[in-house]
């Protein structure tokens, strides 16, 4: 599986569906693309043919607003038809503005209210431990999301309860809704905070597939403590005019021209490889 | 007369039911002694999870936990269940429709000496207003047990309040609790007293006193606040032409409001016994009930007044 190529498909699909919706969260969808691609197409045991498989791995998108990239992953894994894209955020649509587990196959939790997906994942991991099951739980948070107190309640709980079947990933693009983390609530030193809370901390470039894969491999070996992968990313990654630009957090859809430019730029990243 | 607090009844019920059902666990936020889940913790320590003083994480984690087919009973004080962690109850549990049960003690001014910060007088209003939540308010120990068992056997988000002070049995021995069904504890033709929770026994005491004044009061135990027993309420509103509602809860949004909603297409006058939109204070539970006018004597006096002013008809 050419993960880099698949990531471009996901990025373009995400932008297309946001364009059709007329609103959405492009910046955070693009920064998470490479992590989400690796999770769905390499790391996790997930199969569209058996979406309720009790032995599947679970992914929770706690930063629920970035759902376009996850919808793209699910569609490309045949959980549903790409025909659904054009109804994102539209009335009677199957793809809601924030994930809805009843309307969209493959979605595990109705995230959107930040930090709740994180706790949900913790509860899931706890139940799996109780049942001595081997499947794993992955949860992706944003960085602004780490402002929420509930995150730290969960951080205490997960390490206290030795949830080593839980892997959290922070999409650390350093921007939130209004401005960058440093101007709102400074998160640094983020790695030392999580270490202090009793987690294994792995720091990576969130756009380097080798580093992403290695981090997941390492997480599987870590015992007695949950793992957090702090993935340094670029908000809007892949589209020059979106990169590191706060205004592309949401709810902003590209114009037809912007969309055309964006798709061309994303495609160029793989054709250059050739 | 034998009395037991609803919270003690809940703790004991969990222990009894754990022997019959192995598909539930209990979550606590470091208040097991107050909610009486310590009884369960002592008996079934491996089915008890401690979340610490961190109710929001506990609430959303319960949602995740429940997806593995084990029912979590989320327990804490009502102020925290209905306010601090209500958004989690709504977004993590109600909206995705997970099988989580929330049971809260420390309800009403009945909480007593701890004071206002711990006296939940808004919880029925709040939980009632969230789609997918069933809201239960049992009146005695037997009803607590049966309601807890119903919760285990009924899918979906359910909120139940217990209580602190000891209350006598009010339901008959052959009583069978059913979600959505109110009970006629006393027949009457002159006025209907509609009560919930610890107010039910106060309503019965008032009805007894009223009978000495030849006022024949029906008493209804409304132990499911949502979905409320519309049929029963309309039957008795028609039959008696006037109602008095009784709750240890704020006047806005609780039983009074729910009853008015239920009979709104065929309205009759309804008068509330409730906390009159004020914060109370620390004090002995019974003294507070007197001072804030939710005692059996207050129910009695309101009924007398309502009967006296019957010319409003």
Descriptive overview:
Chain A has helices spanning 3-21, 26-31, 33-43, 67-76, 116-130, 149-160, 181-184, 190-196, 209-221, 256-273, and strands at residues 58-61, 137-142, 166-172, 200-205, 227-232. In chain A, strand 2, helix 6 and strand 3 (166-172) form a beta-alpha-beta unit. Chain A is built from ten helices and five strands. In chain A, strands 1-2-3-5-4 form a five-stranded parallel β-sheet, sandwiched between helices. Chain B folds into two domains: 3-168, 3-Layer(aba) Sandwich (Rossmann fold), CATH 3.40.50.970; 183-306, Rossmann fold. Chain B has helices spanning 6-20, 32-35, 38-43, 55-66, 78-84, 86-94, 123-128, 141-153, 199-211, 230-240, 255-262, 285-291, 296-308, and strands at residues 3-5, 24-28, 48-50, 71-77, 101-105, 134-136, 158-161, 166-168, 183-186, 191-195, 217-221, 224-226, 243-250, 270-275. A seven-stranded mixed β-sheet of chain B has the order 3-2-4-5-7-6-12, sandwiched between helices. In chain B, strands 9-11-10-13-14 form a five-stranded mixed β-sheet, with helices on both faces. In chain B, helix 4 runs parallel beside helix 6 (86-94) and helix 9 packs across helix 13 (296-308). The N and C termini of chain B lie far apart (40 Å). The A-B interface holds A 60, 100-102, 108-110, 112-113, 115-128, 130-131, 149-150, 153-154, 156-157, 160 and B 25, 49, 51-52, 54, 56-68, 70, 72, 87-88, 91-92, 95-97.
